[in-house]
UniProtKB/TrEMBL annotation, chains A, B:
The keyword Lyase applies. It comes from Streptomyces kaniharaensis. This is tryptophan synthase. The beta subunit is responsible for the synthesis of L-tryptophan from indole and L-serine. The lineage of its organism: Bacteria, Bacillati, Actinomycetota, Actinomycetes, Kitasatosporales. One of its GO terms (molecular function) is L-serine hydro-lyase (adding indole, L-tryptophan-forming) activity.
Length: 453, 453
């Protein structure tokens, strides 16, 4: 038997996003750093349109997807779900392995699911330019695509190490008409301050976020657009899991285990939250596993605390697992996972025992990516290889135990722009960048104290 | 109105390939270069399995697709057909523009349609290794993918200039487990002879083909697998046009103009032949336009003659439009179009007035590619930009004439591995490589004389 595709029709694209906040017992609010009070729509509209600010704070279970957004989704959605028969055979596992593939979007990952939505609301609000951060470039190129579709300028601060590691992603942003600078840059006070301290700073998602937010705060026609972490971003990604639920129905199966790579958390959230919602409303139970890099292990080694989403401290304070907003992760190739914190919704789900987390090393991830490419044909993004690694490990565990369970993982994007990293891995030149406890402890000593606490 | 997708279901994947040879009034046979007699299955089995040799010479209209091949097709087929509404709006044209997108295959182009089929038949025949040429690497990576699926070794001779221009395509082949060397190489007598003459030779598809065939001739467990030109390759690609016919039915439309990029010719053939078949059997008439590079214009400037398919002269003699098998095209980025000849079936269709040809310059193609990426979101391969250029030119002509017609073009692959070329184009560093009449005339003076003629 060969790999099987489960394909929905266009009218099965979800009509609303699913908001896990409606089903969670509790979620700690974001706090205004000055007052220590819960952030309000009025606080957020300085950098985003009202609709997104409202979504950020919403506890409604379902939020309608605007028809224009849904129509653009239909260019690549519903995305396919595959049963990885060839991978199963290669592993000799009794496990049934499914993957939901988001790499068919024009930008090559799940990120346009939120990029298109954010560009839509900003365009409606009369905004002319969007500023953002990007790690590997998956998000930056997706927002650039959305900007091209909606006639919005896009300015991307790309983490410096990725800017140099992934020249093709940068070129993709240019091709879509966006501008892209290496971060830390000299274009913002945040960037200049960091460069003054360390001219060789490799950058981080936290730093690039500071630069983008600074731009948005200083220009009424520029807004900030976030690629992950925020509630409304996780919300937009839930089209993934909602589709997967229907596709597994077609397969007459239900996952015992759901696995997603977690950097800022929106990819994992998008796939897993609809399944957790089912469970919280009395449906099937699932084990959800967040796969994160050993070099940047916020979920497995971070502290639960209020912290800034960016390095300079321009965001509201978010309650989350964090390695400290001043932590700068090692230069692993999974640039999209180099983030000090995690989406508060994912953090809360971990605290509530709704999911577990596992840290995996870079070379074992590339090894899994290679196995996957040679069996299933799709070359995965380095971020996605983290989910594949955990899926393979679980499938091998089930083989040892002689048990068949269904595993679903998120294949968030293709690795076409990361083939330089594969080539280095094949040449034996790729090392594991371990966990640096001392650096994390220094960063944790920097955690902010919310006013009034 | 936004861009619209027309998506078929898996059971609408064609069950047979369509063979234009059945409907053409006449097709000049390939000749054995020694005897001058029509090549037979017995001649061809030296380098390919019997089933493919039979397909090469077949005049059956329909040839069944093996179920295993069709099941693998289903991983990315049926491929989507889009109505390019955003592009139409940007051009302000009354034309209805459709494109059939083949870039969703794991290797990123239409090439796996034949790669999977060829690997299947070779595996069945007990072959252990496939040798082939590749230009830009679309074909080499597709055969590498097929080799990984069927457990066959794959050895790719990659045209030297592309080998250096497109390092990520090379990395993709390695990721699939294939070996890839720059051609001309020192590994074959053909390569060594050419290097002795010109150590800086940039290579060509003709030279790389000679090297691959030499390997196949010298080892009973190695076969040659061709990426274009051959009848059976064009045959396998006809799934594209067959699907497009059904999708245009869904759109309640029929193309007035069908456009495909033409290098070896199989991409154009795959899209256009099923439409030409309809016409030849009394159905709708279509204008078919082959878009070729100005720098390598076999259809618009070549001579109709018997010529070798490769540079050294190892293939049967093929009756086709040719610039001469010793012609080495300039180093344009559309490496897949750098071929001295054209598929005999395409050549015959041009002679029969069934299609027309147009040569386009490199920079105007990249300009069209950029317009397409910013409106439709997909970054096209340099080869595909040739079809886009002609489609846009036709749409603008219709705008001038105030007429609405339906244009269908083939978007044969994405340009994710060609972003270096886009970056160069954006920086104004890309030049047009013109037509070099003197070089062509020198090559034409080299044309072989079939024995007995």
């Amino acid at each position: 038997m060969d790999t099987i595709k489960y394909q929905l029709t266009d009218n099965q694209i979800p009509t609303s996003w699913y908001n896990l906040a409606a089903d969670l017992p509790e979620l700690a609010p974001a706090l205004h750093p000055g007052t220590g009070q819960p952030a309000t729509v009025a606080d957020l509209v300085a950098i985003m349109p009202k609709e997104l600010a409202e979504q950020e704070l919403s506890t409604e279970r379902e939020i309608e997807i605007p028809p224009v957004v849904r129509q653009i989704y239909a260019q690549w959605r519903p995305s396919p779900l595959f049963r990885a028969r060839r991978l199963e055979q290669a592993l000799g596992t009794p496990a049934r392995i499914y993957y939901k593939y988001e790499g068919g979007s024009p930008a090559g990952s799940h990120k346009p699911n939120t990029g298109i939505a954010q560009a839509f609301y900003n365009k409606e609000a009369g905004i002319r330019r969007l500023a953002t951060e990007t790690g590997a470039g998956q998000w930056g190129s997706s927002l650039s695509l959305a900007g091209a579709f909606f006639g919005l300028e896009v300015k991307v601060f790309m983490v410096k190490v990725s800017y140099h590691q992934k020249p093709y992603r940068r070129a993709l942003m240019h091709t879509y008409g966006a501008t892209c600078v290496a971060s830390p840059s000299t274009e913002t006070a945040a960037g200049r301050a960091i460069l003054a301290d360390d001219p060789d700073c490799p950058g981080s998602l936290g730093i690039a976020t500071s630069e983008a937010i600074e731009l948005a705060m200083n220009d009424p026609f520029t807004n900030y657009a976030g690629g992950s972490v925020l509630n409304h971003v996780a919300l937009h990604q839930t089209v993934i899991g909602q589709e997967a639920l229907r596709q597994l129905d077609m397969a007459e199966d239900y996952p015992d285990i759901v696995i997603g790579a977690a950097g800022g958390g929106s990819n994992l959230a998008g796939l897993a939250f609809p399944f957790l919602g089912e469970q919280l409303r009395g449906g099937h139970r699932v084990r959800v596993i967040a796969a994160e890099p050993e070099a940047c292990p916020s979920l497995t080694k971070g502290r639960i605390a209020y912290d800034f989403g960016d390095t300079t401290g321009l965001t509201p304070l978010l309650k989350m697992h964090t390695l400290g907003h001043s932590f700068i992760p090692p230069a692993i190739h999974a640039g999209g996972l180099r983030y000090h914190g995690i989406a508060p919704l994912v953090s809360q789900a971990l605290q509530d025992g709704l999911l577990e987390a596992r840290a995996v090393a870079q070379t074992r991830c590339f090894d899994a990516g290679l196995t996957f490419a040679r069996t299933e044909g799709i070359v995965p993004a380095p971020e996605s290889t983290h989910a594949i690694r955990v899926a393979i490990d679980e499938a091998l565990r089930l083989k040892e135990e002689g048990r068949s369970q269904a595993i679903l993982f998120g294949l968030s994007g293709h690795g076409h722009f990361d083939l330089g990293a594969y080539e280095r891995y094949l040449a034996g030149e790729l090392a594991d960048e371990g966990y640096d406890q001392e650096r994390v402890e220094r960063a944790l000593a920097d955690l902010p104290t919310p006013a009034g606490s």
